[in-house]
Amino acid sequence: MLKQNLQIKLTQKLSPQQIQLMKMIQLSTLELEQKIESVQEQAEKAEAETVSETAEELIDQLKEMGEDIETVAKKKPDTQELKDAASELAESLKDASEELKGVSEDLKEQAEITPELAQEKVQQTQDLSQNAQEQAQLSQEEADQKKEVAQQAQQESLNEKLEENKIKEKLSDAEQEFAQAEKLANESPNDPNLLENYNEAKDELTELKEALKEAAKEAAVAEKKAEDLQEEAVLARNDADIAKDQAQKAMNQAEEAKQIAEAISDQDEQEPISQASEKGSELANEAAQQAQDLQQKAEEIAKALDQLTESAAGNQELLAEAEEADAESA
To answer: What does the DSSP 8-state code read for residue 113?
Structure first.
């Protein structure tokens, strides 16, 4: 209760300014969205479909960030919640800044492209696409093979388990037969036939116990092998999925390079595409810097809140107020 009251005091005295700063950053992210929308428009004019898609994804991420900040601010958060929100925002803005720098470089490169270079890029991307498709095919074949091997191992594991269960059943019967033979032998200790039956039952019981140990060991080994192979099959399938996605991206890049080459082969189209690429590059670079500035502000808020939380433990004034409030509530 005392800790809760101290946290409430901190929230009441210190959080509003920080919340206001977070809201200001939220407004700034809206401006950043608009800037990236301009980048997307220029990318579309420049026939840069991949860049346009990247910009669209960044816009969606920024909208989600803004909604998250608004949700946190509305619930009157304590210092820890606000610090976490600021830290997550800073990390997202860092990623956005790096993405935008990449967009800027891509558009800058496209602004300087000539019809000859465009044709070279078409050939390069087509070669890369072909290699990626071949790699995806190989990965899929490997995944299929490992899946089949894992299924066989699973069946072998089941067979070993069935064999173990069969021996358990035989052992159960043998234990009953041994108990009966032992009882009869004890009742008639001078009967050689009963003694012989007793010894045979005892030997069979011993053999079955050893057989069960061996069967259990083999079943455990088979089960472990099946699990390992299943894990390998899952990893191979994941690798195949990744290779398939990479092949699709390579195909898209090859198609985009082809479209750009066809567009700038027309002298009337070459200059507008170059201008749009150059303008988009400049806007993306500005947006990257803007995202970096916002990242620094969010980091400063998170750091200030962290220091605030640490210093609270030794704040005697707040501690006294919290103790007083705790006493009054009692």
So the answer is: -
Q: And the tokens for 165?
A: 């269960």
**Single-letter residue type at 18:** Q
Model confidence at 30, pLDDT cuts 50, 70, 90, reads confident
pLDDT bucket at 129, cuts 50 / 70 / 90 = very high
Cα–Cα distance, 108 to 282 (Å, whole number): 8
- Rounded to whole angstroms, the Cα distance separating 6 from 265 reads 70
Burial of 259 (0-12, 13-18, 19+ CB in 10 A): middle
Helix ranges (H only) for the chain are 2-45, 49-74, 79-111, 115-187, 192-264, 267-312, 316-329
Please tell me the distance from the alpha carbon of residue 63 to that of residue 212, in angstroms, as a whole number. Answer: 63
d(CA 119, CA 267): 15
Contacts within 8 Å (CB) and 24+ apart, 122-131? 122/254, 122/257, 122/258, 122/261, 124/257, 125/250, 125/253, 125/254, 125/256, 125/257, 125/258, 126/254, 126/257, 126/258, 128/250, 128/253, 128/254, 129/247, 129/250, 129/251, 129/253, 129/254, 131/250
Whether residue 25 contacts residue 298, with contact meaning beta carbons closer than 8 Å, is answered with yes
User: 201 and 170 in contact (C-beta within 8 Å)?
Assistant: no
Q: Which long-range contacts (CB under 8 A, 24 or more apart) does 175-178 make?
A: 175/205, 177/201, 177/204, 178/202, 178/204, 178/205
Residue with tokens 């998250």: 68
Token pair listed for 193: 């036939």
- What are the structural domain ranges in the chain? 2-329
pLDDT of 152 over the 70 cut: yes
What is the reported pLDDT for 167? 94
pTM: 0.59
How far apart CA 25 and CA 38 sit, in angstroms, is: 20
Q: Do 42 and 279 meet the contact criterion of CB atoms below 8 Å apart? A: yes
Cα distance between residue 142 and residue 101, in whole Å: 37
